[in-house]
Amino acid sequence: MRFNFLFHKHTWSTPHQVEGTTGRYVMRCYDCGAEREVEAQLEASSEIENRIKQARAELQKLNK
User: Fold this and answer.
1) What CA–CA distances, in Å, run from 2 to 5, 6, 8, 34, 40?
2) How far apart (Å, rounded) are the C-alpha atoms in residues 56 and 62?
3) Domain assignment present for 27
4) The whole model's pTM is what?
5) 36 is a domain residue
6) How far apart are CA 30 and CA 16, in angstroms?
7) CB 14 within 8 A of CB 27
8) What percent of the chain lies above the pLDDT cut of 70?
């Protein structure tokens, strides 16, 4: 049976940075090599992490 590349469930790799770029991350399908860009998702998650760190720092200042 021939593998159908158009209709299969992708098995995505972990996000990795594209060589020679800054801030561009992609996930690649292990089976067919398709790429999916995840730059916006990673930026959003790092922005949330930064907000959490700022909130914790403010709480520590208030508790002292």
Assistant:
1) 9, 12, 12, 18, 35
2) 10
3) yes
4) 0.42
5) yes
6) 13
7) yes
8) 72
The two structure tokens encoding residue 54: 């700022």
pLDDT tens, residue by residue, 30-42: 888 788 887 555 5
Q: What one-letter code names the amino acid at 7?
A: F
Q: How many domains does the chain have?
A: 1
Return the closest-CA partner of residue 28 out of 45, 11, 42: 11
10 contacts 29 by C-beta, under 8 angstroms: yes
Provide the residue range defining the domain that includes 44: 16-63
- Identify whether 58 is part of a domain: yes
Q: Name every residue whose Cβ is closer than 8 Å to that of residue 27 and which is 6 or more positions away in sequence.
A: 12, 13, 14, 15, 16, 35, 36, 38
Longest Cα separation, the chain: 68
